Amino acid sequence: MSDPNKAAIAAEKEALNLKLPPIVRPPEDIGVDTPAQSKLLSYRRSKEQQKTINQLVIEGAKRNLDRTLGKRTPSSPEPDYPPTMTSEIKKKAFNYIYLKQCVESSPIVPIQQEWLDHMLMLVPESLKEGKEQEELVQSLINEVSRDFEKSMKRYLVRSVLVRPDINWLEDEGGPIPESPVGLDYSKPWHSNYLQTRNQILANLHIVHPTMKMLLDLGYTTFANTVLLDLTGIRGKGPIDCESLRNDLSIQARKAEEKIMNTWYPKVINLFTKKEALEGIKPEKLDAFYNCVSTLMSNQLKDLLKRTVEGFVKLFDPEDQRRLPIFKMELTFDDDKMEFYPTFQDLEDVVFGLVERIAEALQNVQTVPSWLSGTSTPVNLDTELPEHVLQWALDKLKVAVHRNLEGARKHYETYVEKYSWLIDGTAVKLIETFQAEDHTFDEYTKFIGKFFNLASEIMLLPQWVHFPMVRLDCEDLKTGLTNKARTFANMLLNDIASKHRKENENICSEFEAVKEHALKVPETTEEMMELISYVEKARTVGIQELVSRIKESKRRMSYFLDVFLFPPEDLALNSAVLMWPWKINPIFDENDELIENAKHRKENELIAKREKLILEVEKESRRMEEFAEFAELDRMQQYVTDVRQLQKRIQESEEAVQFINKEEELFKWELTKYPELDKLKVNIEPYQKFFNLVLKWQRTEKRWMDGGFLDLNGEAMETDVEEFSREIFKTLKFFQTKQKKELQEKRKAAKRRSLEEEKLEEEPKENPTITMCTTVMEQIKVFKDYIPTVSILCNPGMRARHWKQLSEIVGYDLTPDSGTTLRKILKLNLAPYLDKFEVISAGASKEFSLEKAMHTMMGTWDDIAFHISLYRDTGVCILSSVDEIQALLDDQIIKTQTMRGSPFIKPFEKEIKAWEDRLIRIQETIDEWLKVQAHWLYLEPIFCSEDIMQQMPEEGRQFQTVDRHWRDIMKFCAKDPKVLAATSLTGLLEKLQNCNELLEKIMKGLNAYLEKKRLFFPRSRCRGKVAHSSRRFDASKYS
Predict the structure, then answer these.
(1) Which helix (DSSP H) or strand (DSSP E) does residue 879 occupy?
(2) Backbone Cα Rg of the chain
(3) Residue 184 burial (CB < 10 Å; 0-12/13-18/19+)?
(4) Residues 219-266: pLDDT tens digits?
(5) Can you name a GO cellular component term (predicted)?
(6) Helix (H) or strand (E) holding 327
(7) Looking at the predicted structure, is the pLDDT value of residue 469 above 80?
(8) End-to-end CA distance of the chain, in Å?
(9) Full DSSP string of 258-310
């Protein structure tokens, strides 16, 4: 071995020596000097234990043998066979029979009930109903069970024994296995037994003296030792889970260190002696050390197991004197009631301690690993069996849950009584309460419930003791109490806000009264309203406010006990209480203000009445001036003057209304102004007359100097008549008025009896009546011009007519843009009017015919074909063309009638072209409908491939028609209006060509069908064609 390796091994051993305590060598003077000492040294307790164990094993084996033999059926005594029957073959047979009976008498595992249930599930329920069926099923189950037992016994015999090849042995139900599957008792085995026993003795290391010393050392060390000292845990009182885990973890670590510092060095010291391996062959050395490792592992596992069992016993429900007491709290956090630590945390701590015990002593090196000093140590297998850990966890889980049940019920009591505070119920209850209209007393009663609940929670005990738990409820109590008080404060803030708002309203109403009472009125109406307002405020308003202040004072007395007002609320409360003493001086100041305003407004009203009287007098004098207006050329100025006077009269009326209103407010007698009403009545005729004359002047100028061709004789005649009637009415009105005024003056003169005053024999000429007469004369003169306008301004007059008129007078009369009625009248055309009238009448009739023709053409602008898709062909077809055909017939007749008129000559070509087009459209539609009817009949027929093959010529012709038809309908679908759809070039000829082809197709189809009928009376083809032709009724679309 190289020096580096030696150095590494030496360093490793040195490190191991540092980990383990030094091995104490026995002193050399110890020897077997005395018999007593020799006997003491030769004594081994393991020998005594081994003897005891062997004796117990032998006694147990005897008891089991007696029990087994007692269950077996006693075999019949062997018959006394003659010597001739004791051959070797017979001995083998009898020996086989005996052994077979022994094997068959062994207990057999019965068939599993699960298998039987599965078999029964395969049987229909109808076969299992009824008493007889149940008995049959039970008998079949018994039979299956017996067959299973027989099969198992036969299999057991075959797997244990080999049947000898003897013919007279009974058949066992099946062929004999080709190779032995059990023990062949026909061959000798005693020598093998001896060989095996010697081999076991050579390899059984447990009886080696060193092993007995190892056992004795383990018994001495671990007999009364456990890893954890669990006594007195309950005596420590309530303890935290973490504290218990830390304390027991420290104990386990210290106990582990103690074992590694005491027991393990002794074990190593034991195997460093020379006599430790005495009698062990080199090739058996690994097996020997394996035995040592197994023995050490079992000792350590037993220690861990006893520790786990001791820990589990702490939680024994039958003995709670050793049960630890854990500290637990009921906490309130984030509106949740919870345990701290939680039940799961507590359970995890208890389970963790079991796992901590199981983790102890897991790094103990094997003896050969420590002695060899290898770099990779090999540890003993000291892991507890899984079933032990599972047993401990199950027992602890049940015990922990049982001991936590009391704490859980106490928690559920809190949940049952107070969970409504935190689960949203209380919030909804408060929101519902706040949404409703409640009085202050109802609020205080509801708030009192929450305060009482808070007091009730605080009186609950802080600690509750259970066998395994001391439950601290202080945090939960505090949280629930604060929650209840929070809800109470929410309601308090709500009613405090309402109280604040009510106080603000009271103060604002007092402020409004103050502001209104001290405001100087601008008008009399405002002054009267202020007087009424203050009077009402003194009597009713202040009393209501005082009662509201008393209610506010009662609320304040409640709030002082349960609510802390901020400074601004305290100031507001003080202001509310002081207002009744502050309002009276304001009312006194208002009285003085009203008295001054009343005196001032009365003076203003008197001044306004006097001013109005002067204004009415001025308007009367202005009104008298209208009777002197006599110049028609100044009519525009007259109209303006009348409008200005009417505006002043309107303003005076508004002033009267204002004065009367003020007088009514002051409760004075209302002043009447009859002169103003008289002015309104008298000015109305002048206003109408002046406006009418002005309108006539403007209209006459427009007619005389406007565009001549824009004139309309009929409308002009109507307007002139209207002007004449209105002027006549006005003339009569003023004449009557003049007579009444004259009569009144004469009566007044007679009453005064003034002899010296001479009555006027004739009244002065009235300028207004004169103007009326003048306008009447103007209208009468203008009426003579109307025939000329009616003849020459006929809308039917065309250039040819003006040419004829020009030929009559001998010069060109054709009007242009500068032609006016005044110019025409200057031409003095009266001698020619009779001839002009004849030409104008002809022009009117020609115009009527032309207008009728254009009306007929315009009718077709909005008329369109009704089209619809035909099935799933994608082709459109015409429908509902009756109205179009009726319109065509009507217009063709009208057109022909118009052509017979003598006045149609100027546009005879147009009416002829329109007639031809209508006739062509009519023919086109007729051909169109014929093609459509045939196509609808033939399309389902020629869709069949059989028909196309049997009638190829007709099929090609139909394809041509179908192509044309689709093109026509596609064009029609783009613009279905009749004029546009029939404007396709060559449409009529194309449709006629299609009809000719369709007639040929129909002849060929009829001939084909007739031929088939003669040869095949019940021809399948005819049936198919007939069926196809019935698929669509073409008459509906024709």
Answers:
(1) strand 875-879
(2) 69
(3) exposed
(4) 888 877 777 877 878 878 888 888 888 888 888 888 888 888 888 888
(5) axoneme
(6) strand 326-333
(7) yes
(8) 123
(9) HHHHHHHHHHHHHHTSGGGGTT--GGGHHHHHHHHHHHHHHHHHHHHHHHHHH
Q: How distant is the alpha carbon of residue 246 from its chain centre?
A: 54
Least confident of 64-78, 81-95, 220-234, 507-521: 64-78
Helix (H, G, I), strand (E, B) or coil at 469: strand
Q: How far is CA 278 from the centre of its chain?
A: 88
Report the alpha-carbon distance of residue 261 to residue 631 in Å, rounded: 151
| Contact present, 503 and 576 (Cβ < 8 Å) | yes
* DSSP helix, strand, coil percent of the chain (3-state; round to 5): 75, 5, 25
Q: How far apart, in whole angstroms, are the C-alpha atoms of residue 836 and residue 859?
A: 34
CA distance 356 to 251: 11
Q: Are 1019 and 1012 in contact (CB under 8 A)?
A: yes
Query: Strand pairing of 463-465 and 469-472?
Result: antiparallel
- According to DSSP, the residues that pair with 875 across neighbouring strands are 870
SS (H, E, C) 382-445: CCCCHHHHHHHHHHHHHHHHHHCHHHHHHHHHHHHHHHHHCCCHHHHHHHHHHHCCCCHHHHHH
- Angle CA(800)–CA(802)–CA(808) in degrees, nearest 5? 110
Query: CA-CA distances (angstroms) from residue 612 to 393, 600, 602?
Result: 116, 19, 16
3-state SS, residue 765: coil
Residue from 531, 555, 533, 530 nearest 542 by CA: 533
Residue 333: its H or E element: strand 326-333
Position 72 scores a pLDDT of 52
Task: Decide which of 865 and 320 is more confident.
Answer: 865
Under a CB-based contact definition with an 8 Å cutoff, are residues 359 and 383 in contact? no
Is the torsion defined by CA of 255, 257, 262, 266 positive or negative?
positive
User: Could you give the 3-state DSSP secondary structure of residue 373?
Assistant: coil
Determine the length of the chain: 1038
What is the DSSP secondary-structure string of 643-682? HHHHHHHHHHHHHHHHHHHHHHHTTPPPPP-HHHHHHHHH
Closest CA to 367 of 269, 255, 280, 221: 269
What is the identity of the amino acid at 833? L
SS3 of residue 18 by DSSP: helix
**What's the pTM value of the predicted model, to 2 decimals?**
0.41
Nearest to 965 by CA among 997, 917, 941: 997
Instruction: Look at 713 and 352; give whichever has higher pLDDT.
Output: 352
Report the pLDDT averaged over residues 884-890: 84
**CB 866, CB 981: distance < 8 Å:** no
Q: Edge-to-edge strands of the sheet including 336-340?
A: 336-340, 326-333, 469-472, 463-465
Q: Mind giving me the DSSP string for 147-206?
A: HHHHHHHHHHHHHHB---S-TTSPP-SSPPPSS--SB-TTS--HHHHHHHHHHHHHH-GG
> 838 versus 732: which is more confidently predicted?
732
Q: Cβ-count burial of 581 within 10 angstroms (0-12 exposed, 13-18 middle, 19+ buried)?
A: exposed
Distances 755 to 230, 750, 760, 764, 984 between C-alpha atoms, Å: 158, 9, 13, 22, 105
Pick the closest to residue 264 from 289, 293, 286, 284 (CA basis): 293
Residues 525 and 665: beta-carbon distance below 8 Å: yes
Residue 758, Ramachandran bin (φ over 0: left; ψ between -120 and 50: alpha; else beta): beta
Q: Which of 403, 394, 412 is nearest to 343 (CA)?
A: 403
In angstroms, the CA 1025 to CA 796 distance is 64
Average pLDDT value for residue range 203-210: 78
How do beta strands 469-472 and 326-333 pair? parallel
Q: Return d(Cα 133, Cα 126) in angstroms, integer.
A: 9
Q: Collect contacts of 826-829 with beta carbons under 8 A, ≥24 apart.
A: 829/788
